[in-house]
Design goal:
Blueprint: H1 3-23, H2 27-50, H3 56-79, H4 85-107, H5 118-139, H6 146-177
């Protein structure tokens, strides 16, 4: 076990803590846990590269931790009627499409390597920013304009859909080339 993998495991452990805090209405603590999870996300990748401690385990755990945090954040905030349900459906659908594509390629014994495109990285940033600003708006009502949240939600949805199609087209290309 190395430092980057330990940070990733901490992020995974923080996911249920985050959800419990949301369900209890402790938005300030939920925001704190969310920020800590976000910082560990940046730190684990940075440290893995700097310390040359990139591992196969880390390559699986890191995206799993990211998806766990984003998915549970959107689902919980949607259940609490804080984030629109349609946005949560779009976010989760994209991840399910990616998982389905990876499964199909694996079942077909097609070798592939996934490298996130710029649009996918932008999508992740927008999804995290959406959760962050929504939580901030819960802590400081009126501080963040409602239209900012609405605009960010639509922008996040747009990038999530575009990113999903990007993965679909990449998957089709991989299948056609094999």
């Amino acid at each position: 076990m190395n430092i980057p993998n330990t940070l990733t495991l901490i992020r995974i452990i923080l996911v249920p803590v985050f959800v419990i805090l949301l369900m209890q209405g402790s938005f300030s603590y939920a925001l704190l846990v969310f920020v800590i999870a976000g910082v560990t996300d940046g730190l684990d990748g940075f440290m893995a590269r700097i310390l040359k401690q990139q591992t196969v385990l880390g390559s699986y755990l890191d995206p799993l931790a990211d998806k766990a945090l984003i998915t549970t954040a959107f689902v919980a905030l949607s259940i609490l009627d804080i984030i629109p349900g349609w946005l949560t459906v779009i976010v989760i659908s994209r991840d399910c499409i990616i998982l389905l594509g990876v499964s199909v390629l694996s079942l077909m014994s097609v070798s592939f390597e996934i490298h996130p495109a710029y649009v996918s990285k932008a999508t992740t940033v927008l999804q995290l920013l959406t959760v962050f600003l929504v939580l901030m708006s819960m802590l400081m009502p009126g501080y963040i304009n409602h239209m900012v949240i609405v605009t960010l939600s639509w922008t996040t949805a747009f990038f999530t859909v575009v990113s999903g199609f990007n993965y679909i087209f990449k998957g089709i290309k991989i299948i056609n080339n094999s």
